[in-house]
Design brief:
Layout (H helix, E strand, L loop, with lengths): L26 H32 L18 E6 L5 E7 L7 E5 L10 H9 L3 E5 L18 H12 L10 E6 L1 H12 L5 E5 L5 H7 L1 H5 L3 H16 L8 H4 L8 E4 L9 H10 L4 E4 L9 H4 L1 H15 L14
Parallel strand pairs: 3-4, 3-5, 5-6, 6-7, 7-8
Antiparallel strand pairs: 1-2, 2-4
Helix pairs in contact: 1-7, 3-4
Amino acid sequence: MGSVYQGMHRDRPPGRLAYVPRRPRNIGRLLLRIGIGAVVLGALAFLVLSGLTAWYLTHPPQADDATTRLDYDVGWVRLNVPTRDGASLAAWYGPVIDPAGTVIVTHGIASTHRDMVGKGNMLRRLGFNTFVFDFRGHGLSDPGVVTLGAREVDDLIDALNVVLGLPGVDPTRVAVIGDSMGGAAAIMAAARDPRIAAVVAESSYARLLETTDASFQAFLGVPAFPFAGPVQLLARLFSGVDPGQVNPADDIGRISPRPVFIIHGQADRYVPSEVGQQLYEAAGEPRVLWQPPRVGHVGAFPQRLGEYAVRVNAFLRQALGRSNPSATDVSEA
């Protein structure tokens, strides 16, 4: 009987088959597929976030308006800077009577000339012709890939070529003041071009790769692990620039005997203040270092306006060969 009623329970009457649920044979395979799918989706999300972060780093959003405050401020003239590769940079020139020299002001990444207007007006009140412009890929300049200083050096030298031809500019007395990436570009440009008579660099990095490693989350808002490596790789692909080759610390020594003023707040969480010390030590004489306490990234001007004006005025006048009167009132800069 046992061979006849296969699949029957022995305690049931003959002739009535019992239902026995089948145990899924491929549950392990199903769980494996779910796990693989989750990993794939996680990897795709990771790559998308890394790609978006790298794209933002090399293509920060630009304003879509065509005018700015300086187009209406008295004393400023709008200009165009043609670059060697056919791009156009928006620029503004603020001349003064009997200038003590001319200063080109350069902004940082994801910043624009708008963030430098106060500093530009301060410099004009101190008696300097002032020239501000937007790097490509920023502000009102042509779109382009941002390279964290590597190719911005060329933009700065192209701007210098325009400045040297402006009325009232003594070509032997032109300095550059740069913030963050703009400071790094100023250092590297001055190392290449002796027409830059002096440099003031605030919150500049010394070695780009080291700074992005150390300050990744502060700059981009995502944790260094596991994003730093992929973002750096993708940013390199997007920009065509190897960050390991962008090192103002290797260039700054070539500026001497022209003077360099390094400003770096002790509370800078984007580029640690030790980096300012590294740049100072790598620079040749004459050199000046100011590390104000409780001052953050490019914060010396807004947080220490009076002291900033006095120090920068003294440095520039000495560097550019003019007398050094006391700094005038810059409270409305």
